[in-house]
Design brief:
The complex is a heterodimer of chains A (399) and B (354). Chain A is mainly α and 399 residues long. Chain A contains 13 helices and 7 strands. The chains are: A mainly alpha (399), B alpha/beta (354).
Chain lengths: 399, 354
């Protein structure tokens, strides 16, 4: 049946000359396309010229020079060094990093919690099952802003720094946030961290080699000793070689606040908590739907092989469920990122908060909004690209 | 199938053609209209609309706060009412738009409000690159700190290491950073946009101190459950001249707002009050009083409003002193620098009415 197609049928019809006539469909198509593109370009041009004209008439400053001016605005928490004498550009960088920080940690935590809840919803354990169902319904049905304000108000209800809760030595919990002991960070620690990252890469490469070798000679090689050596051993060796510096930095109450150690601010914590718990509710449903989409026969076949339930889940069902789970999961990751802009309401200084203040101080609203749009667009597109790549990778290869 | 597709294509085509045809006309008309708008006249726009749209704060006792009936009350609110009286001879023809510190400038720039009467500090950059003009200074203020009495803080320098609640997008925020740098005091800011949420954070103990203009501190303190639990520190770290502002370029509207403010000051200087204005119009022999009240001269008409504008305004809201006493004295603010220039230490002064 196949392969016997008449070769004449495969040949394309010779191109017909384009007639400048309304009766020619190709001509009509070209005319419409030109008109639509022209219309869109016209609207953009009109918006642009109208805006620049009005800004000029009103003597409102335009341009990007303000980025290099001294910001003068105080920022509560920052991942990079910042003080108010630095530029608006630096302040905006701090904002972007704060947004990324809460979004990335939120995505990881919400994924873990959501997956556990999604599996719990399918559990045969009545308590677990009903708890997960109730959680999902409550969390999904309340507006996120309300939940954020709730968590923030709750954290403010903690005692003040002078009456801080002190569950473990050096750990303080108060309405100023969570203070944890740390150590003074030196270059040796940075190098050790770098070695650990390199160790992860080396482990992955070793694992790939071990698999290939096993395929050749059939001999299984354990990966964990190599992982231990690369990821834990090597960094410790580097740290020790550089003199093993370690100076503990324990928070202590001095004056109004705790000094030393590292801290998690109530604003960050409330935002992270709100975003994680809210999004986990949606992720739980996605995971549940994904697992239920896997044919019951897969379970039965796996059980017939004698695999225990947990291993059936991790080896047979979840990998197949992933195909259904990943695309809607991407949307949830984007939601976390975009919802983090609600930070303004509870005083976490993310990019929206800082860009808003910037546009307010400089009066350059259009530039400020453009920056916010650019930042979210970049983050969202990066997440989408990564997830699409991952989706392709795990997609079931059908023959 | 084919006829269906063709008719759909034709429909889309016709729509696009119409739209494209309409476009050139549209492109010209709006480009020309706004050209005239800012320069032409906020006053004409207000008259055509029938109401003045006034940007006020979201709720600051003494300056702008809705009462139990939902009517806006306060110092800044009375300035808007006075302007509505000057334009329409009707204090109700004004719509109040509550604006946060962060959205206020965009609201004025975009024309969402006609005027901002919203304890806003006059600074050089706001006067120039933001595209505004200030009509005058109706309240001389300065930035201070409020702390809980139980903290036992005597002055601002003792705030080293403290967490301070501050509203974003204000001169307050920048002054705090400037002052901390200059005084080598280490301050940790907590910035929350809405005033109410910000004050709630201070009350919950999230911050050791709250900073804003001293008048704002007095207003917040007055609305606390127990005002005596809070102290306003003696240090004043900045100059905050507050006043109404309008869009740059509309000098006619600006003149009206500026002279409305001077009129209120002048009225106090000459002793014209809400109660006696009508009587003074009939019997006061001083020519300047007669000119302010519009019995003689053309002062109102020169500004493009009714000649009896000041008479109506004073009968409606009183003079500057009466507005101050009605709104700001109850929250514990003294006249201080806001007394008339005739009093020692007073800075409020009006040029001559002629």
């Amino acid at each position: 049946m196949s392969g016997a197609t008449d070769p004449r049928l495969l040949r394309k019809a010779p191109p017909r000359p384009l007639r400048l006539s309304w009766a020619d469909e190709r001509f009509r198509n070209i005319v419409w396309q030109v008109l639509v593109v022209g219309g869109v370009v016209g609207i953009i041009y009109w918006l642009w010229s109208n805006t620049t004209y009005n800004l000029e008439v009103r003597r409102i400053a335009t341009g990007w020079d303000f980025l290099w001016r001294e910001a003068g605005l105080p920022i509560g928490e920052s991942l990079i060094e910042y003080d108010p004498s630095m530029s608006y550009f630096r302040a905006l960088q701090v904002g972007v990093l704060n947004t990324l920080k809460v979004a990335l940690i939120g995505i990881v935590l919400a994924t873990i919690l959501g997956t556990l809840l999604g599996i719990a919803r399918l559990s045969k354990n009545w308590m677990l099952n009903k708890f997960a169902a109730a959680y999902v319904e409550i969390v999904r049905d309340l507006p996120l802003l309300l939940q954020l304000l709730f968590w923030y108000a709750l954290l403010q209800g903690l005692p003040g720094p002078r009456q801080a809760l002190n569950p473990i030595d050096g750990v303080f919990l108060s309405n100023r946030g969570l203070k944890l002991p740390f150590f003074v960070w030196e270059s040796a620690h940075s190098w050790a961290l770098l070695t650990a990252v390199a160790g992860v890469v080396a482990t992955v490469l070793y694992r790939r080699w071990a698999r290939a070798a096993q395929a050749r000679d059939g001999q299984a090689r354990a990966v964990w000793p190599a992982a231990l050596a690369f990821i834990i051993g090597a960094p410790i060796a580097v740290w020790a070689a550089m003199g093993a510096p370690f100076t503990p930095d324990v928070p202590a109450l001095r004056g109004f606040n705790f000094r030393g150690g590292i801290d998690v601010s109530p604003e960050f914590f409330a935002l992270l908590l709100g975003l994680t718990l809210y999004t986990a509710g949606f992720i739980a449903e996605i995971v549940r739907a994904g697992i239920q989409a896997v044919n019951q026969g897969q379970w039965e076949a796996a059980e017939a092989l004698g695999l225990p339930r947990g291993r059936v889940m991790s080896l047979i069902v979840l990998p197949q469920a992933m195909r259904v789970i990943i695309p809607p999961m991407t949307s949830q990751f984007l939601n976390i990122t975009k919802n983090s802009s609600l930070a303004v309401a509870i005083g976490y200084q993310d990019i929206v908060s800082i860009a808003n203040t910037t546009l307010n101080q400089t009066g350059q609203a259009i530039e400020g909004i453009a920056i916010i749009m650019l930042v979210y667009l970049t983050i969202s597109l990066s997440i989408s690209l990564f997830m699409n790549w991952y989706n392709k990778r795990i997609a079931l290869v059908e023959r | 199938m084919m006829p269906m597709r063709r008719s759909l294509a034709t429909l889309v085509g016709v729509a696009t053609t119409l739209f494209a045809a309409a476009l050139p006309a549209q492109a010209q008309a709006p480009a020309a209209a706004p050209a005239a708008a800012p320069a032409a006249s906020t006053l004409d726009a207000i008259r055509a609309r029938g109401t003045l749209v006034c940007g006020v704060s979201t709720g600051l006792a003494g300056f702008a706060l809705p009462d139990s009936q939902g009517n806006w009350r306060g110092f800044d609110v009375d300035y808007c009412r006075a302007l509505a009286i000057a334009i329409f001879n009707d204090p109700t023809k004004v719509r109040f738009v509550p604006t946060t510190a962060q959205v206020r400038f965009t609201a004025l720039q975009s024309g969402e409000v006609d005027i901002l009467s919203r304890n806003t500090t006059w600074t050089l950059s706001r006067d120039t690159s933001l595209g505004f003009d200030f009509a005058g200074i109706n309240f001389f203020d300065g930035q201070g700190f409020m702390v809980k009495r139980s903290l036992n803080v005597q002055n601002a320098r003792q705030l080293d290491g403290a967490t301070v609640c501050v509203q974003p997008g204000t001169t307050t925020e920048q002054n705090l950073a400037d002052w901390a740098r200059g005084a080598r005091v280490n301050i940790r800011p907590v910035v929350i946009e809405r005033l109410e949420d910000n004050v709630a954070a201070y009350n919950a103990g999230r911050c050791d101190a709250y900073t804003t203009d001293v008048s704002g501190l007095a207003a917040i303190r007055a609305t606390q459950q127990n005002p005596n639990d809070h102290v306003i520190l003696p240090d004043v770290i900045s100059k905050e001249p507050l006043g109404p502002l309008y869009r740059h370029g509309d000098q006619r509207f600006g003149d009206l707002v500026r002279w409305l403010h001077f009129g209120l000051i002048g009225a106090e200087e000459f002793g014209i009050t809400a109660a006696n204005a009508q009587q003074m119009l009939a019997s006061d022999p001083r020519p300047e009083v007669q000119r302010i009240l519009g019995r003689t001269g053309e002062l109102g008409r020169m500004l493009g409003v009714d000649n009896a504008w000041m008479l109506n305004v004073i009968r409606g809201v009183g003079n500057y002193g009466e507005i101050f006493e009605r709104n700001l004295t109850p929250i514990g603010l003294q006249r201080g620098r806001n007394a008339l220039w005739t009093t020692p230490g007073g800075l409020q002064y009006a040029p001559p009415f002629r």
